[in-house]
Amino acid sequence: MSTITARIAQWACDVTYDDLTSDAIDAAKRFLFDTLGCALGGYQVHDCKLFLEHYRTLQQPGSCTVVGAGDRMNVVSASMLNALMTRAMDYNDIYWKQDPSHPSDLASAPLAIAEMRKLSGRDLLVGLVLGWDLTMRLCHIAVPGIRERGWHHATLMAYATPVVAGKMLGLNPEQLQHAIGIASCHSFTLGCAVAGKLTMMKNTVSPMSTRNGVEAALLAQRGYTGPEGVIEGKEGMEHCLGEGWDYSWITDKLASTKKGAAAPDPANGIGWMITQCGMKSFPIEALMHSPVSATLQIVKENDLKPEDIAEIRIESIARAADILSDPAKYDPQSKESADHSLPYCIAAAVTDRMVTPRQFKDERLWDERLRSQMKKVKVVANDEFEKAFPAKQCTRVTITTTSGGSFTAERDYPKGDPRDPMTIEEIGEKFDALAEPVMTVQRRKQLKERIFDLENCKDVGELMALTVGDR
């Protein structure tokens, strides 16, 4: 029997635009709109400025556009920078099953290759749908997830990006399989990137997997070879990480994406997965969206001031209590730690009645009134909520007041989840808030129009030209 990577490679090579459903195409446009908004926001943050200057110093000339900045760099460098910009604010999409992922971390790869090769909008849509699909499927295969075994989900991204990059480059199945082997065999990422005191690498490891995937596909195109058994073979991922795998999501169920193959049921891996991905309405770690939403609901409905509150009790799943409220999260020293700190984000919700990118700027991060609320936050694991995860992201927030009153709110999933999706208008508001500092109203309008008419775009370079800031 052929290896899993051979089956993935053959599937990817066979996919055509005609296989995409209207729902998948619509979702791809929405996620591209959200992704480019996140990238324009990320272009403005310190992490990305550092990396951009680093690449400028190295001199990376090419034909691919760097979002926001407008620099023209080679396809590998542009993929890296645009992925980092997308990820830097922790505001891009989210899908969480056995493992979490941010599929848009790899969107920069098909964008850059499509621009380099002067491909069409339809070609790009195939790459985007394919990328979201495989990234999301990989979140189901390890049981328990690799994150629970101490590894970061960028490890899985290293298996997805070379497939998308190879598809956009027009590789044959053998070349594409080698690309997967080249990218993944050296790209296992430690979970410490998102544990304890967080650094700029929190948002960098996945873009580095994207960069590696693009380079791997380019090498495979030249005839470079990589190992075939990087998933189930000797000393592949399964061998190294231990037992507990369900490969049906990336083998048998792949055929369901072919046109007319089966009635779509994406929640169970039948059909294109992109329709099941979520968007973020807050620029914070995914598991914090439900408790922040519930906290904002209580505070606004009851007009509570920070000084009115004695305790905020958060009931959530065990991993939220573990990674989002460890001792380091009660004293965040950076934006990276703050947007993964449940105490900080709850304190911001209580103090400012909003959680936006502004809450992670230095003037808010070190605000004494805001920080004094963190000690009021108590996070506990709820066994019943644990059983419901990942189908639901249950949370219960109970706020006790200094006068002895008590208010409770519960959420099963956050805004932006496929069961409560963001509307085009809401995505647009998010996009405008992120892009406005660097892009005029007219340019933003043109970019949105081009995205939502992508199937009629003859050259993706026309789209990318509109991603450059004009103010």
Overview features:
two-stranded antiparallel sheet, 60s Ribosomal Protein L30, Chain: A, 471 residues, single chain, alpha+beta, 2-methylcitrate dehydratase PrpD, 2 domains, 8% strand, 20 helices
Note down, in words, how this protein is organized.
The model has no long low-confidence stretch (mean pLDDT 96). The chain has a four-stranded mixed β-sheet with strand order 6-5-7-8. The protein is globular. It has 20 helices and eight strands. It folds into two domains: 4-280 and 433-465, 2-methylcitrate dehydratase PrpD (Orthogonal Bundle), CATH 1.10.4100.10; 286-411, 60s Ribosomal Protein L30, Chain: A (2-Layer Sandwich), CATH 3.30.1330.120. A hairpin with a 3-residue loop joins strand 3 and strand 4. It is α+β, with helices and mostly antiparallel strands and 471 residues long. The chain has helices spanning 4-14, 22-42, 46-58, 75-87, 108-117, 121-138, 154-169, 173-184, 205-221, 237-241, 289-301, 318-323, 335-338, 342-352, 362-365, 368-371, 383-388, 424-435, 441-451, 460-465; strands at residues 61-65, 72-73, 95-96, 100-101, 309-316, 377-381, 395-401, 406-411. Helix 3 runs antiparallel to helix 4 (75-87) and helix 7 packs parallel to helix 9 (205-221). The longest helix has 21 residues, at 22-42.
Q: Could you give a quick summary of the protein structure above?
A:
Helices cover 45% and strands 8% of the residues. Strand 3 (95-96) and strand 4 (100-101) form a beta hairpin. It has 20 helices and eight strands.
